[in-house]
Amino acid sequence: STTTGDEEEREKKKSSVVRLNKRSTEQLANVIQGFIKSKEFGKYFAEAVNIECFPDYYNFVSAPMDLDTIHRRLSKGFYRSIASLCFDITLIYSNCDAYNPSDSKVVKLSKQLRDRLFEEVRILTGYRHEESTSSLSTTTTTTTTTTTTAASGRVNKRDVELRIGVFERVLDLVLAEDTNQFFSVPVTDDV
Q1: Hey, which residues does 81 pair with through a beta bridge?
Q2: Which residues lie across from 19 on neighbouring strands?
Q3: pLDDT tens per residue, range 163-174
Q4: Cα gap 148→139, rounded to integer Å
Q5: Are 80 and 21 spatial neighbours (Cβ–Cβ below 8 Å)?
Q6: Where are the alpha helices (DSSP H) in the chain?
Q7: Is the pTM of this model over 0.70?
Q8: How many CA atoms lie within 13 A of 76 on its CB side?
Q9: What is the predicted pLDDT for the residue at 171?
Q10: What is the C-alpha radius of gyration for the chain, rounded to an integer number of angstroms?
Q11: Closest CA to 64 of 106, 102, 92
């Protein structure tokens, strides 16, 4: 049987997935806990955005993320690959950038947080977060902010192409996971 180029590419990505082991997971959970307790980052990124204070937040962000959620997920063994952890780290930055002015203090802090967490991941695991996954965050931000534009009836070809790119990258992440166990961990509100 022959495989298509797409199938071969997915198989190659699947075999190159860097898994999180128990020791790295515990170390990363401790690092995240330190950032949660930090005055610099904890103030803004420790907990989910308070919707009572920012009622329009979900108009801009469709997949909220915070340090406490990442910590809980690490503690419960939710992440099977380092790439999926890095995806959630990137969400903190991309969500912040989608909601706030790009030159604001909080966006600059979220970028510093993302970069420092990527450095900690690299130190503890040897995994270097690839630019291709970083472009996912940019694309995710673009698609979440263009949702409002699309709802108003104005859709341009570039926005559609970006959205398709996001779905393809997410599909690659899903397919790179251990498909026999991928759906064995239930995703609940507390994960």
Answers
A1: 19
A2: 81
A3: 666 666 666 666
A4: 15
A5: no
A6: 5-15, 22-37, 39-45, 57-60, 67-75, 82-99, 105-125, 131-151, 157-176
A7: no
A8: 15
A9: 65
A10: 17
A11: 92
